[in-house]
Records
---
Amino acid sequence: PLDKEELGRSAWGLLHTIAAKYPDKPTRSEQRDMSAFFHLFSKFYPCDYCAEDFQRHIQVDPPPTSCYEELSQWLCRAHNKVNVKLGKPEFDCSKVDERWRDGWKD
Ligand code: FAD
């Protein structure tokens, strides 16, 4: 099985990439589906206490689904919350597109 670190790295990679590809002008049904996706993801994420924390986070601060930018910034903040909890450095959310959408410039 994947250990917690590998699982986390892969999961964040997938989530940030999904957020980066989310439309600028999503339809109502895309918005509903994206919201459902994060709710379901947080229930089935295969690390019990990680999933519980993420579910609590989503209840207090639900994913904004109005456009890719709101969604990717929200996800960046959510990831930073976990970074802080684990004593990892916070990521600069102004660099999220560079990291997950466009590729680093250098
Ligand atoms: P990761 O945190 O996995 O990040 C991968 C890459 O994403 C980084 O190298 C960086 O380039 C980029 N990145 C970092 N921060 C951001 C950001 N804010 N926005 C955008 N990109 C960023 N582990 C636990 O031990 N306890 C937990 O409670 C826990 N909860 C988790 C909850 C969720 C929903 C997920 C997906 C994972 C969770 N994890 C948890 C795993 C943990 O977050 C890390 O994935 C794992 O520790 C590996 O860390 P890493 O240092 O390799 O980088």
---
Amino acid sequence: EMDAATLPQFPMRRRCPFSPPPEYDAFRAEQPVAPVRLWNGQKVWLVSRYDDVRQVLAEKRVSNNSTHPNYPITYEARGTVKGMLASDGEPPYFLHYDGDKHFEHRRMVARDFAIRPIKDMEPLVQAHIDELIDSMLDSPEKPVDLVRAFALPLPTRIISGMLGVPYEDMKRLQEATDNSSSFNQDPEEARAAVIELGQLIDDLVTAKEKSPGQDIISRLVVEQVRPGHLTRSQLLRMIRMLLIAGHETTANMISLITLYLLENDDLRARLTEDPSQMTQAVEEMLRYFTIAHLATCRVAIEDFEVAGTTIKAGDGIIALISSADRDGAHFSAPDEVNIDRPGRDHLAFGYGVHQCLGQPLARLELRLAVSTLLRRVPTLRLAASRDSLQFKDYFNGLQSLPVTW
Ligand code: HEM
């Protein structure tokens, strides 16, 4: 047995905001299943190669149950949040359910996020994008923070519309969900944010219970809660997950792609000239940034082997998708952005049964947001020094992105 105190500390920090920590290269080369230590002293396995990450995420012998005592909690504030939401002993979200129960709960909302209905939302998403850009261009003051003016409000508006959140509550919602999940976040602040958003969601559900509308929440109340397939508290947490999952992630991608294009004139010119290449550019950016780099934690429920190492029942595992997506054994020249790369088998949305439910929506929002920004604000430029930009850590992203034009 290894002494946890001598193990490398995880998470490791990025030195360059566009790249995963350099330690991952060494892990892939020398120790593809490496023991590391978390903030609470727990030893967990880091799995870093593309094929192995896929194997773990497709494993039947792992659980995503975050209430398991050995489930990896990557930083303290996150533990606070998960603990609070799991107060009835259930995992906080269906993301953390396993097996049939996971399948049943995911199915309750899967059709709303499927490719077809999301494609039909294109005109609506485009209208929100144009409206946000209109108000940005009308702004009396410059520079403007692209994160607050565009990247965050867009996914908030879209998911709010789908869930039937009234327009007046949207600002409150954006503030409550904008908890900038950070390794340094104060656990008390995290607690306050959980309570604030919980109150908002509870009020919303109460309103839908009284007079259901055409939205997802109303349908869940009528079709799932009333017949007893879903408890009210499960519904509240399902809504919380849908609000949070698609909000900061999409916003971070919009701001990171924008920054990348502001610094890479050739690619920007190419995409401005031929917006039809935006689909593949978004895909490559998803791989390159793999922003949800700590999302895919698991715990083994039976012994199994990965790359020659036996992982024992009860061991915590982190399947490092951001390392997998820079694995040179799978992607040629993995540290370069190459929008002509064939295939879209990156793991930025995860893999297996928990693979991101919102990917058609995320892809739509990203493609339209970035291409509209290039088209309508062709002189867009950074209005701060590169060194002054503040990056996020739990999800890779930008705290703010001052721009002018
Ligand atoms: C799951 C990434 C946008 C809803 C996941 C997972 C990843 C991910 C990596 C898997 C977690 C795991 O296996 O433990 C992303 C990224 C996004 C994004 C990078 C944006 C670029 C969205 C959007 C929604 C959404 C827009 C819609 C509301 C979900 C849900 C799950 C999930 C509900 C859980 C699925 C399940 O357990 O069955 N996401 N996501 N995500 N995502 Fe996303």
